[in-house]
Amino acid sequence: MVVAKEDGAKIVDDLNPGFRYGARHTQGIMLFVLLMIAYGMRANLSVGIVAMTNPETNPNKDIPTYTWNDKSVILSSFFWGYVIPQIGAGQLAKYYGPKWFLVGAMGVSSLFTLLIPVMASVGGWALMLCRIIQGFTQGFFYPSCHNLLSKWVPPSERARLGTFVYAGGPFGTVVSLTFTGWISGTTVGWPYAFYTYGTGGLLWVVVWMVLGRNSPSQHTKIDPKEKAYIEAALGHAEQKELPSTPWRSIATSLPLWAILIAHSGQNWGFTTLLTNIPTFLQSVLHFDIRSVSPVHF
């Protein structure tokens, strides 16, 4: 058994192309951009709602503003939809592949991002509806990324490429809050924050339809050496039956519950700060809209 493992490791080392750019890196870049745009869509309302409810934030008086008494509820509505598909999305990605789920999810999320300026004029409830649908569709993103990384990234590269992909979320948050604060203070106003991200999401969908693949075996233009290296490193053949999910072991695992509780607490604090600090800076500390987002960090 030890000999077999050593032989397998030697085969992987022989096939390793080194740091040469390959198809797996293209998939990684696409997933990084996916999370960057997704977190931008998630975060831009945190700053945008300041400009949407305060007529003094913009010199252009033609930019509409609204009076809402339920701003906190509006800001939280994204997460009402977000929590629903997590486990189910992972199972769908596992059995059917995540590529087209990502196309549909990002496409719908982008369309409802573009609709926010229109729906906001209807009322706070209409804006909440947009955010709930955005949250629901974006609930597919992380499970799909997990699945794709498991199919594309050899274990020896997983820490590096996985870190790069998941850094797209925090990076997108930084960019979105800063960009939204800046553009909300210009003459074009807050609507263009949503138009920009909605358009960016649709462009991502088009590129992903061309470049995205569920696995190396479905990539017709991948270098055969890279394909052989990935499949040898992962140590499984594509035709094998998928293992069943050990639901009972998951439900009775104390370490898993400890991580779940700790992560839920961390996410609660992070989300509260992310969604409410811009409003606090503007309404309590009286910061200008263009300085709200940089100060946020």
UniProtKB/TrEMBL annotation:
The keyword Translocase does not apply. Pfam families: MFS_1. SUPFAM superfamilies: MFS general substrate transporter (SSF103473). This is Major facilitator superfamily (MFS) profile domain-containing protein. The chain crosses the membrane at residues 29-53, 73-93, 100-119, 164-184, 190-211. InterPro entries: MFS (IPR011701), MFS_dom (IPR020846), MFS_Na/Anion_cotransporter (IPR050382), MFS_trans_sf (IPR036259). It is found in: Membrane. GO terms for biological process: monoatomic anion transport; sodium ion transport. The keyword Membrane applies. Belongs to the major facilitator superfamily. Sodium/anion cotransporter family. It comes from the Eukaryota. It comes from Photinus pyralis (Common eastern firefly). One of its GO terms (cellular component) is membrane.
